[in-house]
TrEMBL record:
Record-given protein name: Adenylate kinase
EC number: 2.7.4.3
Gene3D superfamilies, per the entry: P-loop containing nucleotide triphosphate hydrolases
Binding-site residues, Zn(2+): 130, 133, 150, 153
Chain sites annotated for binding ATP: 10-15, 127, 200
GO annotation terms (biological process): AMP salvage
SUPFAM superfamilies noted in UniProt: P-loop containing nucleoside triphosphate hydrolases
Region of interest (NMP), residue spans: 30-59
């Protein structure tokens, strides 16, 4: 199945997408991760995206849609895709409808992860990831079993994202409310929207998402 995880910065899209990838053999398609890779590689898309991401704004629809199109054309995407952080504007949602139709793919569910703004700021400011494998952690909510060592790969180098500072987070939240929140109504109208209380704990949300994926398979 193909599904979208919709939600503001810090809602847990990446955390849940990774868990679904492990459990169901689906592919995580995070436009944020793909853009950060493009920035690191210094591609033309990456050069255009860099400043916008540092400021907490949205990268242009054209760049993001091209990146998604390329990723969907890779063979492993046939197993089913979890869209994490895409679409983020109505124009992106319309483009995705077109891409899926062209490729003969379905959209099986859109999950809206619903949280409160103050909780998101706390989640983002406590977040870090393993530099070796990308597993995500949190100072309070998700600590490795052995302090300082990754549960997945044992790596000890951890990193924090450049856009996870208070000023940029405020801009990211503004962009979410202005440009992305309208997608909730867009997908509700299409009758594919499922609302999940993302203030719940990570495991409980995962259980709900597993049920949604199982039903969509
Ligand atoms: P992106 O990388 O997509 O960032 P984001 O949407 O801001 O989302 P985050 O990664 O911050 O949060 P998340 O929901 O994945 O939360 P996580 O699971 O890590 O985008 C970055 C930038 O790229 C954008 O600002 C934009 O510039 C650009 N961009 C990307 N896509 C674009 C697009 N389509 N169009 C245009 N521009 C685009 O969880 C956060 C923390 O909380 C973690 O530490 C986690 O352990 C913890 N946590 C998770 N769930 C829970 C829980 N239930 N309870 C307690 N703690 C929890
Ligand atoms: Zn690791």
């Amino acid at each position: 199945p193909n599904l979208i995880l919709l939600g503001p910065p810090g809602a847990g899209k990446g955390t849940q997408a990774r868990m679904l990838t492990d459990g169901h053999g689906l592919v995580q398609l995070s436009t944020g991760d793909l853009l950060r890779e493009a920035v690191a590689r210094g591609t033309s898309a990456g050069k255009a995206a860099d400043e916008v991401m540092k400021a907490g704004g949205l990268v242009s629809d054209d760049i993001v849609i091209a990146i998604v199109n390329d990723r969907l054309d890779q063979p492993d995407a046939a197993a089913g895709v979890i869209f994490d952080g895409f679409p983020r504007t109505v124009a992106q949602a319309e483009a995705l409808d077109g891409l899926l139709a062209d490729k003969g793919l379905s959209l099986d569910a859109v999950v809206s992860l619903e949280v409160q703004d103050d909780a998101m700021i706390e989640r983002i400011s406590g977040r870090y990831t393993c530099a070796g494998c990308g597993e995500g952690y949190h100072d309070t909510y998700k600590t490795p079993a052995k302090a300082g060592a990754c549960d997945q790969c044992g790596g000890t180098e951890m990193k924090r994202r450049a856009d996870d500072n208070a000023e940029t987070v405020a801009e990211r939240l503004k962009a979410y409310h202005a440009q992305t929140a309208p997608l909730i109504a867009y997908y509700d109208f299409k009758r594919v929207l499922r609302r999940v209380d993302a203030m719940d704990d990570i495991g409980a949300i995962g259980t709900q998402l597993n049920a949604i994926v199982a039903k969509a398979s």
